[in-house]
Amino acid sequence: METAAERSNLVMAAQTGDTAAITRLLAVCQADARRYARRHCQASDVDDAVQESLLVISRKVKGLKAAEAFSSWLFTVIRRECRKLERM
Fold first, then answer.
1. Is the per-residue pLDDT at 1 higher than 70?
2. Burial annotation 27-61 (CB, 10 A radius, 16+ → b, else e)
3. Which of 9, 63, 88, 43 is nearest to 77 (CA)?
4. What is the pLDDT of residue 78?
5. Rounded to 5 degrees, what are φ and ψ at 18?
6. Residues 6+ apart with CB under 8 A from 26
7. Can you give the residue range of the structural domain that contains 13?
8. What are the b/e assignments for 1-23, b being 16+ CB within 10 Å?
9. Total domains in the fold of the chain
10. How far is CA 79 from CA 19, 24, 34, in A?
11. pTM score, whole prediction
12. CATH of the domain at 57
């Protein structure tokens, strides 16, 4: 389990384009993403929502203004993906 400071450092490293940090960040947040998606998506959409959300995170993490906002941003991305999949 990573501390908030360690996760924040990982986010900042990912924001610089460090591919190892991005990979580690996605691995670290995957369990939280899955748990959140189970609450907000239909059961059949959980895997797709998590996969799409992590893809968005990996591409757009550089644009995140504050590393401390990562968790809430992650959950917002997942919630949007769940809604998108629900409309399909």
1. no
2. ebbeeebbebbeebbeeebbebbbebbbebbeeeb
3. 63
4. 97
5. -65, 105
6. 54, 57, 58
7. 4-87
8. eeeeeebbebbbbbbeeeeebbe
9. 1
10. 25, 22, 11
11. 0.90
12. 1.10.1740.10
Are 21 and 70 a contacting pair, CB within 8 Å?
Answer: no
77 burial (CB, 10 Å; 0-12 / 13-18 / 19+) is buried
Share of the chain above pLDDT 90, in %: 90
Residue by residue, DSSP assigns 11-64 as HHHHHTT-HHHHHHHHHHHHHHHHHHHHHHS-GGGHHHHHHHHHHHHHHHGGG-
Residue written as token pair 């059949």: 44
Q: Which two tokens stand for residue 59?
A: 């591409």
Residue 14 phi, psi dihedral angles, 5° rounding:
-65, -35
* CB-CB neighbours of 72 under 10 Å: 10
